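Action item from last week, closing it out:
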Amino acid sequence: MTVSIDKTDCVWTIILDRPQARNAVDADHAANLTEAFVAFENSDAKAAVFWGKGGNFCAGWDLKMAATLSDPELREPYFDRHAFPIGAAPSILGPMGPSRLELSKPVIGAIEGAAVAGGMELALWCDIRVMAETAYMGVYCRRWGITLMDGGTVRLPRLVGQGKALEIALTGRKVEAGECYRIGLAEKIVPHGDTRAEAEAMAHEIARFPQEAVRADRRSIIETRGMSVREALKVEWANGLEAIRREGTAGAGRFRDGAGRHGEFADI
């Protein structure tokens, strides 16, 4: 299997395992990744880690497969399967797989080695990125006339701002881990080889908390981007209200009875 899942009760690790191609994604792997994340969304798991086996996160769209699309008989059916027609429901399947999925639960990217071109787009799709100090990103597909089609032009400027996004996208240059952290493309830098363990530890920490509140706050952060303050506050209130009713008052009762004093997180 080139896509596999390691499962615990509350955290799934979804593994892209195609090291001979630096985990580049073709049509079959895109479908398998999407299927895995849809299964995660529909499961009882509370958080997921996305990791590439063999030393690289993902080298992008499989260009050997892409080269076959110069044949119109292959090209048009391929792009029809991934169509995103204006005014109609899009296919949930992006060329790289899960890049169009809007999940209700967090995904943490564990990034070793290359996360370039479409692989960078998959990293940007994750909620949080834990990156090895030797890892790197970049729009390496700039060299071949391949556009960003899996959210790169949307998510990159939202994370780093328009000017920096344009500079990274148009030059196609290598963006090393230290710079990724400084500009907001990575949230944590760890030693080489440690990303999966660090990301899984973070996922388990998130999974410990009352989940309705976790998901409500996650949803508000994502949904309110670009809104006016007034409209964003309305969304925040609506998202948070039911979680407060079902979880928050009970949690306040645990605090009243002695749990979690002085900022203690172990006893909740």
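Closing note: Residues 13 and 49 are 5 Å apart (CA to CA).
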